[in-house]
Each structure stands twice: as C-alpha cells, then as structure tokens.
Amino acid sequence: MSLIQPTQIPFDDTRLATARAELLPALRAFLPEDAILARQEEVSPYECDGLSAYRQLPLLVVLPRTVEEVQRILRLCHEREVPVVARGAGTGLSGGALPLCDGIVLSLARFNRILDLNPDARTARVQPGVRNLAITEAASAHGLYYAPDPSSQIACTIGGNVAENSGGVHCLKYGLTVHNVLAVTVVTMAGELVELGSAALDSAGYDLLALYIGSEGMLGVTVEVTVKLMPVPERAQALLAAYDDVEKAGRAVGDIIAAGVIPAGLEMMDGPAIQAAEAFVHAGYPTDAAAILICELDGTNQEVSEQVMRVRELLLASGATEVRTSKDDAERLRFWKGRKAAFPAVGRLSPDYYCMDGTIPRRALPEVLRRTAELSEEYGLRVANVFHAGDGNLHPLILFDANRPGELERTEELGGRLLELCVEVGGTITGEHGVGIEKINQMCVQFSPEELRQFHAVKAAFDSKGLLNPGKGIPTPRRCSEYRQLPDRQHAHSH
Ligand SMILES: Cc1cc2nc3c(=O)[nH]c(=O)nc-3n(C[C@H](O)[C@H](O)[C@H](O)COP(=O)(O)OP(=O)(O)OC[C@H]3O[C@@H](n4cnc5c(N)ncnc54)[C@H](O)[C@@H]3O)c2cc1C
C-alpha cells in the first residue's frame, strides 16, 4: 500500500474548470495576460518537480513580476481559500513544489535580478528566482563567492534553497543555507510583507529567520534574500582515496574529523556510483575500487600544505589502497567532475532512480552502509551511494523501472526503510532535500504526536487557513495513525 502517491485529478474535471473560470477574471484584474497560464499545455511543465514519480496539474500558474503582484495574488487566494504552491526552478527532490489540483502555482521565475552586491560588507541582496550559481558568478569579480553549493546549483534558485535549507559539498566547513543567509523578505498568505533577520549578528525576539529557512514554502513566499559572501580561499587542494571496502572508507571519514581537520568537502562514492560516473565523464576514477573518498582542503597556502599531509597519512592508515593528491587546479576539478555528475551518471544505469536523503551521525556510517547493502539485497533493487560523507548526509540512489508493475511501490518502501534506519541510529530523515510529500510518513517515525502538534501550531501562526503548500512537510495525526498501523510498520515508533 502506498500512502504517498496521490491520485491525479484530471485538469478538465468539472469542479476544477468552474473554480478556474471563477478565479481567472479576478487575477486578470491586476496581472498582465502573459503572467497567467491557464491552458493544459501551458501548465503541464509545472506538473512535477525533480521527484517526477509524482505529478499533478495545477488549477493555474501565475508568474508575477513585482512584490505588489505577489501580495495581491496571495490576498486574493487567502480571501477565496485557494491553495498556493510557490515554485523556484522545480529541481526539488521531495515533491515540495508538486502542485495541487485545486491550487495555483506561484512561480518566482521572473524575480531573477541581483539587486545589490556589496563587496565591503560581503553581502548580496537578490531576488528569489536568482540561480544559486549566478550569485557566485556575480561575486567572483570581487574575489568572493556564495558558499552553499548544491549539485543542482546551475539551475536551482536561492528562493528554493531558503525553502529547503539546501546544502552542498562545501557545507561541512561553511554551513548550510541557514548559516549563510542574513535576512529574507517574505509575503505571508494574508498578503502582508514581513522582513525576517537583519545584517546584525543577533536580533531581538524569536529567531524567525532560522524558523523560516527550511520551512518548504509553507510559511510564506520569499521575495528577497540577503546572503553572506565569502572570500575565495588562497588555495584549494583535493585528495582522492580508493578503498577495497566501503566500511573502511566510512571509518576514514570519522578519523579525519576526529583529527581536528575540517575539510571544505568530504564526499564518498561507492562502486556502482564510481563506475557510472567514470563511464559518463571519464574523470580517471579507479573503477575497481569498492569506494572512493574525495577530500578537499582550503585556506592559506601553509594551512593547506599541512592539512594535505595530515589527511594523506590518515587515509593511508585507514586502509586506502591508493591516495592521489591533486597537483594543480585542473586535476582537483577532475576529481570533482565525476562526483558532480554522479546523479545523471547513475540515472543512465536504469530507466528510473529515486534519490533518498537522510542524515546520520558519522560514527554510524560503516553500519548504515552495510545495512543499506542488506536492504538492497532484500528488496532486489540496486542501490548506488554518493553522498556528503563529512556531514553524514546520505544519498542512496535506488535504481528501478517504473514500468515494471509494483517496482515503484517497492522502491518507495525501501526508501522509507532506509530513512527509518537513519532515525534508528540517531540521525534524521532529511539532510538537505526537505520532507515535501516524499518523506511525510517518516515524519511520523521521527516525531511524537506532541512534537508534531508544535509543527502544526507554527504553521497556523503564519498561515491560519492552511493554504500555503498544504499537505506537505507535516503529516496530520490521522495520516500518522494510519501509517503506524500498516502491518510492516508495527515496529516503528518515534525517536
Ligand atoms: C541533480 C540534482 C542535484 C541536487 N543536489 C542537491 C544538493 O547537493 N543539495 C541540496 O540541498 N539539494 C540538491 N538538490 C535538490 C534541489 O536542487 C534543492 O532542494 C533546491 O534548493 C531547490 O531549488 P528550486 O529553485 O529548484 O526549488 P523548487 O524545487 O522549485 O521548490 C522547492 C521548495 O521550495 C519552495 N519554494 C521555492 N521558491 C520559493 C519561494 N520564493 N518562496 C517560498 N517557497 C519557495 C517550493 O514551494 C518547494 O516547497 C538537487 C536536485 C537535483 C535535481
């Protein structure tokens, strides 16, 4: 039984067609014609995000250009009780931007300007539809960059990053989105404009900025973001270590951090991921290895020289069969080339893949990798692992074929078991991709009913009618009780 997959409602359903016809004139009263998409062929590109197993056509799509337009859209929807799903680039992997059949999609694609870049204060004020990489491209002229670097950074937007509290390779040392955003301007569902955070280190009252970052488009619509910029380090160097055993590689990760070294990035790929990446981009990876670690160190020349020597010793002591050190920037980038292309590379191995995202304490890495292999065997589904090892942020990629009857359901179930394994070893069901629709059942495993009540209370404080991205992120008590009663979930309990 799948509790996740919603039934798709047809676009021309009579009730929806009536609702669409009623809403359109009210939107046309203040939006130009090109800001409203109302035909099936126009809205179909918005039917899913990066989690394409789940699809639903929205009632309408709106593409406002100004903050005032966003306010008017939200006020109107608030008054008429129409649900709203905000959307950036649609690269999310947990179904966060999945539309609702009776709701509108509010695309921030036209909010794509960098409003101000201040090299002295090392900040940039940007609109939410600006791509993550575009911030670094603009800042590079001043020797600065924006640190959080999701693998999707060429496409994903800063508004989406704020909603998901996105991470990336460099977050081990430089933090997630929440550590790199100073302020956001938000329109609430009732159409009010509020500013959260400031340039100051601390602010009075509750830290609403921290609460808002990672709230998955459920508390407000971001219309402006102020980010911190970092100076580009003097030097960066990477090591690539090969292992004949995945668990040894897992242990090496803990050894590096325990030695007091904080790498700029510490990533791991297992055999299937190495082979797929090598076949795809020819990065020169050792294809006979059971696992590789890529460890990047950055800082001043002296710091990097010392740390490279220290990490090399640690890697060899942990049983690496080969350790390479990048001789120049071209080689460093080659080490990363396969890692950066790993998702699409693994995507070539089977008709479909499902990318999970959970976080565990680093010490549990060897055990979780072993049990992942056991579960992969039990379900008869191949799993490739490529992940932010330094953060303990796993990304098991389950390979499947959606055209084979029952395989998507088995994949979902295996994904759920892997997330619950993360909770069992003291971790959490999400690292950086959010809960969305994908992990909503596992929220019932991670949190108690009392804790979930607090989540609902926060949601209600921002969005009293529950119209912003409803059905995502926080399960209802009823959903949890149904999930807990599923026969193979009788063992599951919170914490
Ligand atoms: C190949 C690939 C690699 C990836 N690698 C990483 C990675 O390394 N690290 C990582 O963290 N993620 C990664 N992701 C996931 C994804 O790119 C991130 O979650 C990203 O932040 C989503 O941004 P987006 O603009 O595409 O948002 P969308 O997918 O459009 O939306 C995501 C969520 O944000 C909300 N939202 C979007 N814009 C706004 C706004 N202005 N106001 C309020 N809510 C809003 C939506 O409602 C939705 O809930 C990857 C995805 C892919 C496809």
Automatic annotation (TrEMBL):
Keywords: FAD, Flavoprotein, Oxidoreductase
Bias-annotated ranges (Basic and acidic residues): 479-495
Annotated InterPro entries: FAD-bd_oxidored_4_C, FAD-bd_PCMH, FAD-bd_PCMH-like_sf, FAD-bd_PCMH_sub2, FAD-linked_Oxase-like_C, FAD-linked_OxidoTrans_Type4, Oxid_FAD_bind_N, Vanillyl_alc_oxidase_C-sub2
GO MF annotation list: FAD binding; oxidoreductase activity
Domain annotation FAD-binding PCMH-type: ranges: 54-232
Pfam family, one: FAD_binding_4
SUPFAM superfamilies linked to this entry: FAD-binding/transporter-associated domain-like (SSF56176), FAD-linked oxidases, C-terminal domain (SSF55103)
Cofactor(s) annotated in UniProt: FAD
Region (Disordered): 468-495
Name assigned to this protein: FAD/FMN-dependent dehydrogenase
Organism listed in the record: Thiocystis violascens (strain ATCC 17096 / DSM 198 / 6111)
